Amino acid sequence: MIRIGVIGTGVMGADHARLLGSVVAGAALTAVYDLDAHRAAAVAGTVPGTRVFADAIALIRADTVDAVLVASSDSTHEEFVLASIAAGKPVLCEKPLAPTPEGCQRIVDAERAAGRRLVSVGFMRRYDPGYATLKSTVDSGALGAPLLLHCVHRNPSAPAGLPSAMPILGSAVHEIDIARWLLGEEFVAATVHTPRRSRSAGRTQDPQLLVLETASGVLVDIEVFVNARYGYEVRCELVGEDATVSLDTPAATQLRRDSFVGRVLPQDWLPRFGEAYRRELQDWVDGLRTDGVPRGATAWDGYVATVVAQACVAALESGTRQPVKLD
Ligand code: ISE
Questions:
Q1: Which residues line ligand 1 (CB under 6 A)?
Q2: Which residue's CA lies nearest to atom 2 of ligand 1?
Q3: Are 294 and 92 spatial neighbours (Cβ–Cβ below 8 Å)?
């Protein structure tokens, strides 16, 4: 049994705690921490035997915790991941690994100095059944060489006043990771186009169109639109020399109304990627139980995603094509 402590019990942390406490085989939720102690207590109350800690570092060091899951606010990730590495404990960190390339680099260096893999990053789409099929189709060679990857990421609404960098750093960063994973190569440059703003977007530049270039010349376009109103939707089509393959939006139900029939879309990512989150946590725990090695996206993947996302932010702010420079 792997005893896990969860840091941050907001929407994501609470859902991870639920999965670890009742769904993931071989895992036990033993500890939670949140800045808001009531929120932590509410989550602990759903899994008997879970202790609420008043301090995140004490949770990381506790001898009742074998591994740590970090789902606190982005700016705290680096501190908690570094503390987990220092304690010699595997840590699964929600994206971003850290908001800056320098912060991610410090984590990569600390893990290297520890001499073994400890860090995983929560790029859960790699575990989505649809993306997994896309990946095996690309890898089978059935498409011929990949040429273009079209991605769409839409959320129904975003908080008023959201900085224009956030649709990139918080949302499109998933497409950045999944495109690298699907194509198996790195990006070399980024450009961001800014169409007319939606009337729902306030001062946020929304939507945005990101264009990324890979080392071999594949173009990846990402529409990110966080005030799309109608629902949560993620789309992806890979165009190869011989065929194309695209992600279907899974839907359990169809709506018939007013002479219309259609699929019901989720309102956010939790229902859309619920199975991906479950598989991600199960695989992480399975790795720890079988050979002690955590699985999932690595610290390096987290570093690259942040470097590319920040290159996109620089492209947005400067209106120019930006190189992607990996250390
Ligand atoms: C959110 O933070 C996530 O990580 C979701 O997966 C993403 O789809 C959403 O746009 C983000 O805001």
A1: 155, 170-171, 174, 269
A2: 170
A3: yes
